[in-house]
Amino acid sequence: MAQACGISSATDRSKNNQTSYPDLLHTLVWNAIMDNATDVHLHCVDEGVRVIHRVDGVIVPKAVLPLMEGRRLLNQLKSAAGLTVVRSFAPLEGQMDWHDEDTTWEIRVTLTPVRERESAHLRLLSAPRDSWDLCGLGFSTTDRDRIASTVRSLSGLVLVTGPTGSGKTTTMYGLASLTDLRTTTTYSIEDPVEFKLPFAQQIEVDEQHGLTMHEGLRTILRMDPDLILIGEIRDKDSAIVAARAALSGRLVLATIHARDAAGAVDALHYLGVPHHIIGSSLRLVIAQNLLRQVCGQCAQPRELDENETDVFARLGMNAPKELLHPGSCAECGWYGYKGRTGIFEVAPIDDEVGALISAGARHRELVERLRVKGIRSMTQDGLAKVAAGITTMEEIFRINAYARSEEPTGQKDNAEPVEASVG
Ligand SMILES: [Zn+2]
């Protein structure tokens, strides 16, 4: 199977591996980690079990294991994840760990019956090695400083928004770690807890036992919190409690599903939080998405076509003379890309914007006000990263950020230097 997945297992790193699983499972997890996969899917197909990786957000088909081998792998997986090996007629969830010299992966395992067989999904979660540094996530130093001054004031509501899988939770933890967590009482309510945050009391939603997001939040409020993390706000009661907690002088960091900073205001309002409470509690909104970073070893410079030059011009930015086109080499596993970086809209809510929100300003009006104040949109941040040779135009078009954005034209170029990003 190692060969079928195209990865040899004899590398220096494997010698440091401290986890031992049965043969097929060991190779499966090992290949996923070497491939920097975040997810592994085992799908039952007529010929056997298809192995699929998700790498940097993109699906990569790997091997198809023969039926008998596939069954053996699923049994090894269930046993390692603490699940019954007997075929189940309901979905099963389990967990296992993988350690090597400097990283521990927590692997969440879900099995589900599919016709007379089973499919599985593995989610590989690892804590970032070099803390939760915001510049490491792709924030510019200007944005990081802007964020730090808000977060360190330790009061108000800060929202991190974006689509599913856009790195919102990582950013929320990055924000929390800007405070001195040893000298604040920090609680989180999450569904589920995705990473371990030092010095925080992390509570996981467990609706089966009556611990809903709303109930968890109410409990936290009775426990004298300075800092509350919420992942993520999905219901009216939680939204209102979060906003009121922020108004009572706590710092509340929360994720919410929306497409941009102004959209996060709408999302809270649709959940039932009155505009005047949003306007007076909200201090900062960060909207984000993830783009793949072009491989520095094999990327080739190329000139921009007319359409690409036009995209820069319409967003009021100077187009670079050339940009990078992805290549293919062993360093990036022939993908042309390696690692991901965030693109961000960092929108502080000052008195003026807060008053606009309280007055029930529409989405378009808020977006225009933020742009006038020099707040860069996610697309503009992405284009700055294209110009800096961190990512490609293809990535901008792939996540469709440009098509979804509603940019007023003719803004001034407020591009800033961009830091190195997630490896
Ligand atoms: Zn490469």
Note down, in words, how this protein is organized.
The protein has helices at residues 12-16, 23-34, 67-80, 141-151, 168-176, 213-221, 236-247, 261-271, 275-281, 306-314, 351-358, 363-372, 378-387, 393-398, 401-404, and strands spanning 37-45, 48-55, 58-66, 92-99, 104-114, 117-126, 156-161, 186-190, 200-204, 227-231, 251-256, 282-294, 300-303, 322-325, 337-348. With 423 residues, it is an alpha/beta fold. Strands 9-8-10-11-7-12-15 form a seven-stranded mixed beta sheet, sandwiched between helices. It has a six-stranded antiparallel beta sheet with strand order 3-2-1-6-5-4, with helices on one face. A hairpin with a 2-residue loop joins strand 1 and strand 2 (48-55). Helix 8 runs antiparallel to helix 12 (363-372). The structure holds zinc ion.
Furnish the topology, listing elements before pairings.
Elements: H1 12-16, H2 23-34, E1 37-45, E2 48-55, E3 58-66, H3 67-80, E4 92-99, E5 104-114, E6 117-126, H4 141-151, E7 156-161, H5 168-176, E8 186-190, E9 200-204, H6 213-221, E10 227-231, H7 236-247, E11 251-256, H8 261-271, H9 275-281, E12 282-294, E13 300-303, H10 306-314, E14 322-325, E15 337-348, H11 351-358, H12 363-372, H13 378-387, H14 393-398, H15 401-404
Parallel strand pairs: 7-11, 7-12, 8-9, 8-10, 10-11
Antiparallel strand pairs: 1-2, 1-6, 2-3, 4-5, 5-6, 12-15, 13-14
Helix pairs in contact: 6-7, 7-9, 8-12, 9-11
The structure holds zinc ion.
Zinc ion binds next to loops.
